[in-house]
Amino acid sequence: MLRSTKHACRVGHVFVPLVAAVALLASACSVSWGGSGATPVSDGTGASTLQQTTSTSSGEDPVVAAIGEVTPAVVTITSRMTAQRSPFGITSSGQATGTGFVVRSDGIIMTNQHVVEGAQTVTATLPEPGGRTLDATVVATDEQHDLAVLRVDATGLPTVALGDSKDLQLGQQVIALGYALGLQGGPTVTSGIVSSLDRTIHVQDPNTASGSRTYADVLQTDAAINPGNSGGPLIDLAGAVVGIDSAGSSSAENIGFAIAIDAAKPLIQQALGSTG
Fold first, then answer.
1. Strand spans (E) along 105-146
2. Taking the chain (276 residues) in consecutive chunks of 10 residues, what is each chunk's mean pLDDT?
3. Residue numbers annotated as active site
């Protein structure tokens, strides 16, 4: 069984979303355009913050530099849900953990829709130092691309710069960040290359009649993308986000998928407009 990815030419391969899920327990037992340059993003106060995505200092490892740019803006997303099972009305509860990244300093966060879908409550935990856990509200979603924009009540948060996925080339180096397996102590970082562009993938989803969903505008990478990575940033060596980690394969190695950031930009703009 393949994790969340889509390939129109590989009928029958179904990928799985990469949230770290906690088993359901019976209650009786207990979201700035970047690229190689820099782009201003409004912080909601009328001012603009310039996101630097260009060169590193002489002799500095570009991978290390890019990770250092982005890591402060990568957050843990925790969704809690309650379900009632028929025919006996047994209530169960559980949670899923994914990743998100801050796109505006006053608390606008991007993640995957499947990370927050069906949740009664959603929280975002900021990275250390600090590590605050904040209540989050879903302000916009795009089911076609498995995207969601959240808002938390905070100001002055570190942000990412958004790149241009249309400029990516096969073989270009990329880095995936995310809270794999819900592990504590900061995001897991893996690196690889862009393996394919503009995939269409089928993602396992037991909540649909067909048992799967189809997503377009997907990048394929050989960077390891694991459960818990869903919603995390896929970045280039300039530290700009070029994709949103979404799915992988449980039956094949070195196959991971991310929603292209260009597909997410309209939703981000919509959310920024609706939140002021």
1. 108-112, 121-125, 133-142
2. 34 47 27 34 40 50 95 96 66 84 97 93 91 95 94 96 96 96 87 94 74 87 91 97 89 88 94 76
3. 114, 146, 230
